[in-house]
Design brief:
The protein is an alpha+beta fold and 329 residues long. The chain has 3 domains: 106 residues, no CATH class; 131 residues, Jelly Rolls; 72 residues, Phage tail protein beta-alpha-beta fold. Helix content is 34%, strand content 31%. The protein has 9 helices and 19 strands. Helix 4 runs antiparallel to helix 6. The N and C termini lie far apart (68 Å).
Length: 329
């Protein structure tokens, strides 16, 4: 369970993220802070409370809770929280108290979301049918948290990749949060993948909106056949073609390479392996790979490397190394 200090600190970050752009140093501090699971949960609670506040704006019960929160700040009864490492500005303390009040109201007076968690191990894939009729296909080494209620369909992707086939429900938009971005749909099919540089969204059917954490960035509409990425800071990329071949490939237990550098191909292939395949010489990574490989068929993949790229596989206890075949004139 998160502490009141965590909630106040989360509200502090939330206030800064939604008020103005953070500089690089502040972004690095935020990324370090959010690595703690308790901190991440506290920040997500602020986001959820903010969403509830729009729906509950005219509620007299909520108005009473917010008035009480303002009174606490005015009387200085948050002094204990203020002494937790540093003093927060009064504006952020008021926001923190208000967000917590909204959260308390939502917990007491609204239906509590049904919460679920689904994971896959390295090399494992899994299909989950959610209570609302939506389907989630989890790729290798993935982790999602699901919250469903009468007012909410919210998925948090914390690791890996998932393909979402969303049941149509205009009263409950379907949101997928990954890093500092959110993808929103009503009834469509799209893929979200967390990658080294951030996250990537590909739309297979319908249209979704994708927004980053930057307050100045407008969410973009992404239609079928198109995709978009965003950085770990939440900055959106330009629209680009969706990775349809790759996604359709892993859904059928295949990896598809269409003229990609060997370095990139190995990074993708190793997502499904506990013992990686590495390059003995980084210069080999510029060679290009084509082909369709069945996930788990290491012999066929290594044979293709040998015949197509003239590489020799040397198997060790912890990894398999690809070396260039010696030249024989």
């Amino acid at each position: 369970m998160t502490s009141s200090v965590d909630e106040l600190k989360a509200a502090d970050w939330f206030s800064q993220a939604h008020g103005a752009d953070m500089d690089r140093a502040l972004e690095e501090s935020w990324l370090k802070w959010i690595q703690d699971p308790e901190h991440q949960r506290a920040y997500e609670n602020c986001e959820l409370a903010w969403e509830f506040s729009g729906e509950l704006r005219d509620s007299p019960q909520l108005a009473a809770l917010l008035a009480a929160a303002d009174a606490l700040v005015a009387r200085g009864e948050v002094a204990a929280a203020r002494r937790a490492r540093r003093r927060l500005p009064l504006r952020q303390l008021a926001l923190a108290a208000s967000l917590i009040a909204v959260g308390v109201f939502a917990w007491l007076f609204l239906d509590r979301p049904e919460q679920m968690r689904y994971m896959t191990a390295v090399g494992e894939q899994r299909t989950v049918v959610l209570p609302d009729g939506s389907t989630v296909q989890l790729n290798t080494d993935s982790d999602i948290r699901v919250e469903l209620s009468r007012h909410l369909r919210r998925i948090v992707l914390t690791r890996g990749e998932a393909l979402f086939s969303v049941a149509h429900d205009p009263q409950r938009p379907f949101q997928v949060l990954a890093l500092r971005g959110v993808t929103t749909a009503v009834g469509t099919q799209f893929d979200v993948e967390i990658v080294r540089s951030g996250a990537a969204v590909s739309v297979l059917e319908g249209t979704v909106t994708v927004g980053g954490a930057r307050a100045t960035a407008e969410p973009v509409a992404v239609s079928a056949g198109r995709g978009v990425g965003y950085s770990v800071q939440g900055t959106l990329s330009e629209l680009r073609p969706a990775e349809i071949s790759r996604i359709q490939g892993w859904r059928t237990q295949h990896i598809v390479f269409d003229d990609v550098p060997l370095e990139t191909a190995l990074a993708e292939y190793n997502r499904y392996r506990r013992k990686p395949i590495v390059l003995g010489d980084p210069a080999l990574g510029s060679r290009h790979v084509n082909g369709v490989f069945h996930i788990g068929d290491e012999a066929a993949f290594l044979s293709a490397m040998e015949q197509g790229l003239h590489l020799k596989a040397i198997k060790g206890d912890t990894q398999t190394t690809l070396q260039a075949e010696p030249f024989n004139p």
